[in-house]
Amino acid sequence: MAVSIEQLRVAACLVILTLLCNPSNGDVAGGAAGATDAPHRRFEYKYSFKGPHLSQSDGSIPFWVHTGNAIPSADQIRITPSLRSQKGSVWTKNTVSFENWEAEVTFRISGRGRMGADGLAVWFTAGQGLEGPVYGAADSWNGVGIFFDSFDNDGKKNNPAILIVGNNGKLIYDHQNDGSTQALGTCLRDFRNKPYPIRAKITYYKKSLTVMINNGFTPDKDDYEFCAKVDNMIIPHEGYFGISAATGGLADDHDVLSFLLFRLTEPGQQLPPPEAEIPKEEKDKYQEEFENFQQELDKKKEAFQKEHPDVQGEPVEELYESVNDREIRQVFEGQNRIHLEIKQLNRQLAMILDEQRRYVSVVTDEIARRGAAAEPGQVPSQHLDTIITSQQEVLKNLNDLRNSFSDTLRQVASVQHQGNAAGAYETVQHFNDIKEHLHVVKRSVEHLAQRNGGPSEKVKCPELPPMPSCLSTTHFLIFVVVQSVLFFGYIMYRSQQEAAAKKFF
Ligand SMILES: [Ca+2]
Ligand SMILES: [Ca+2]
């Protein structure tokens, strides 16, 4: 019976792999071209962990050891909390000696800063790197590390990045340059503060190491995209899997939700039957242990609820909830601020418009007056040119302003549309962007207001010297056209803005 279920599972995995291996998704299995070439894939529970019963009542993780500041809980392992200078790691208790394998790691790296530090690493090394300076694990490792480097140490603006770094036990990791000269493969991906967990699929098949990433923007677990591939990658025949993380002056929560290991077998090769690998006594022992653990857990849960009827969840979760509450409050405050700023902008634009009207009427009067008193042949060309240039600039600035406004409103719209689905961090980020955008708009409006507040002094139309002059028809026409365009543009913008305001507030 067990064998037939196993066969069904292998068949299901094959179907999934066939789907994954289509050419548009990249070459998952290093040269596999079709379903017949896809490797067999078998889940290895002894080198894996996942919720909802990830840790035991004493805080240990079955088949894994954890060190440093790592905090296992029922549904995740917090490798480091978001405090300064933390280090933590988890490692398999036993070595793995599969020729081909695939690891799926699901994690979240989240923090309130725009930047975070230092990052998270997934390891396959000959020894357990229980503690050290490389993302919380030992340096000079023998094997391979896949680094999710959040912090841009060398200031080249190329982080967050994902790197594959191999080491034969002699290399010292170049932290100050983000390992840029040591990486065998790399890709730039922002893996911090995503609405869904990040998934990394690391495949070692036929001596090629491939890293595929699901970037956490979608609930679709199979939505992987290619990150990097290293051919002819030599790693130890036998080693430990590990995940480590560290924080520095900046800090993120580094939470791993699951680590799933699959043994890959090339088509045509015999899979060792699971019974041969797990002796019956051991299997029974684990089964018994599991049942005992389950019963004990239920008892403790009941006892805890009786003792603390008003306490829900663990203190860590309470902290989480308060952070979420704060974020929601920030979103609402942000929205109110945007509303106020838009109102203020509206007032300032109305002022500019009044100013313009006054300006135009003064100029028109002046021209009419001078047209009547002018002698033919002379043109107040300098002043008129100044006026026309300044009008054109005003028009251009107003157009820019209108565009900025449309952008802002579009952003507000998109935030409101995705607000609920996308999660709080993403929303806060959007609002920050909008806030910055509005500041730019505000500055340019102030600039405009300043320009128009004292423009009469600068251009000094009414105080023109009483020299005899006349206005050519061409100049007058240009002036009239410019003014018309200006008014038309403003009225269009204003009606658009009002329509948009009605739509969103
Ligand atoms: Ca770094
Ligand atoms: Ca960098």
From TrEMBL:
Question: A GO molecular-function term, please?
Answer: D-mannose binding
How does the record classify its membrane topology? Single-pass type I membrane protein
PROSITE patterns per UniProt? L_LECTIN_LIKE
Q: Is the keyword Heme in the record?
A: no
Q: Which GO terms describe its biological process?
A: endoplasmic reticulum to Golgi vesicle-mediated transport
Q: Which Pfam families does this UniProt record tie to the protein?
A: Lectin_leg-like (PF03388)
Domain L-type lectin-like positions: 41-264
Cellular localization per UniProt? Endoplasmic reticulum-Golgi intermediate compartment membrane
Q: Where is the signal peptide?
A: 1-26
Segments spanning the bilayer are 476-493
Q: Which UniProt keywords apply?
A: Disulfide bond, Lectin, Membrane, Signal, Transmembrane, Transmembrane helix
**What is a single cellular component term in the Gene Ontology annotation?**
endoplasmic reticulum membrane
InterPro entries per UniProt: ConA-like_dom_sf, Intracellular_Lectin-GPT, Lectin_leg
Q: Which domain of life is it from?
A: Eukaryota
**Main subcellular localisation:** endoplasmic reticulum
Q: What is this protein called?
A: L-type lectin-like domain-containing protein
Annotated source species: Megalops atlanticus (Tarpon)
At the highest ranks, the source species' classification is: Eukaryota, Metazoa, Chordata, Craniata, Vertebrata
